[in-house]
Amino acid sequence: MSQISSRPEFDWDKQARSQILSMYFYGYICTQLLGGWLASRYGGIKVWGVSMLICGVSAVLTPLCARTHIYLVYAARVVIGMSTGVTFPSIQAILGHWAPEYEKSKLSALIYTGLPFGSIVTFSISGVLCKYGFDNGWGSIFYLSGLFTFIWAVAWFTLTAETPAQLRWISDRERNFIETSIGKSGAIQLGPIPWLSILKSSPFWAIVVAHFFSAYVFYTLVILLPTFLKESLNFDISQNGLLSSVPFLSEFVTSLFVGYLADTFRIKGWMSTTMVRKTFQVFAFVAPAISMACVGQVTCEYRHLAVVLICITSACTSFSKAGFLVNSLDLAPRYAGILFGIHNTFATVAGMITPVIAGVLTPNRTTEEWGNVFYVCSAGSVVGAILYWFLGDGELQEWAVPSTSTFKNDILTGHTNVAFKTSETQLNTLEMNMRDKSDIKSLPF
Hints:
Blueprint: H1 14-30, H2 32-42, H3 44-68, H4 70-84, H5 87-98, H6 104-112, H7 114-132, H8 138-159, H9 172-182, H10 195-199, H11 202-231, H12 237-268, H13 273-295, H14 303-317, H15 324-331, H16 336-361, H17 367-391, H18 404-413, H19 424-434
Helix pairs in contact: 1-4, 1-16, 2-3, 2-5, 2-16, 3-4, 3-5, 3-8, 5-16, 6-12, 7-8, 7-12, 11-12, 11-15, 11-16, 11-17, 12-14, 13-14, 13-17, 15-16
GO molecular function, one term: symporter activity
Membrane topology: Multi-pass membrane protein
Transmembrane segments: 21-39, 45-66, 78-98, 110-129, 141-159, 204-229, 241-260, 280-298, 305-326, 338-361, 373-391
């Protein structure tokens, strides 16, 4: 492998570079709601797999686009954003079919460990590839990203299935356990979407607020951390990539036990689902708020302390994986993909305004100005904690319960994936329970 030339290949000004970063979010925000609807309607496995193939192709073509015209780079970034925009709604739709009641937190947390793990790998090797990689260094990042995406897609379509009933590799015992535990709420086909009820739901808006402020902190770390390490703490480029990955390593490690801890509290009866969601999410806000406020006070002289505090911030935010990130599955498992698509749209707005606000706050790029960036994150986290505590809920919502007529139709037309048959007596009992709102929490879905 050869070193890159000392002369930059592209002479793009700051505005052009900012536009390239922004184009991703323009595409990403467009497919959130659409991705949730497609995943709920046609299956998260298919939607996610196809989107990742598109993303891989776009990544491989990015160096060619860059050497042709900058507008083609803009287009590639928009396509990548649109293709990855369906990721999280698809995950929620998949969990709706696969996550048993008392394993939702741990499965969700385990899946979302891919976020910090990807950041660890990317930050760790990108700096090295830029310096020693092929195709002038930077090009190798896109080629390898695309290659790994293709490999992942082949494994994805080979090893996965939309529902337990369709998976070849699963035992009858495990299939019956999952289908019986989930019940009908995640198995019945998607019917009319209760848009008005969703928009009037205060627990849903608690998720929206929590996701927005959590995303603001996340994007501050992902997008701005390398710049902060360079401009405020004076780390050089060889240290920057590795140090930028360390906070995500701490998040990855913490995420491994957060979901297990949350589900243990629920199984043992130590906390209700609502209290688990609120407690974990408030901690995911308050602890980082304190540590980020401290980062704002750290000078270059104690720069390693700043890295430690950022690691604490990142580790504590992982408690969100047992908070708002899984909360859609509690409120409405049938519509979890759609709900996530809506509140992730607001979270994407946070990602779009994060670099803008940081640019306004750091005109001279001084340590004091960078402190203001972290103070804003800290204040937002406090607001998010307060609102989520008072508005959040962890129980199945009335508007998310399938209507009796819809349920009967699914049974008669064979659209359920449940491993057992429901007798007419059970249907009549279900109808009686549905007439009483107080019995909703006792229904088997």
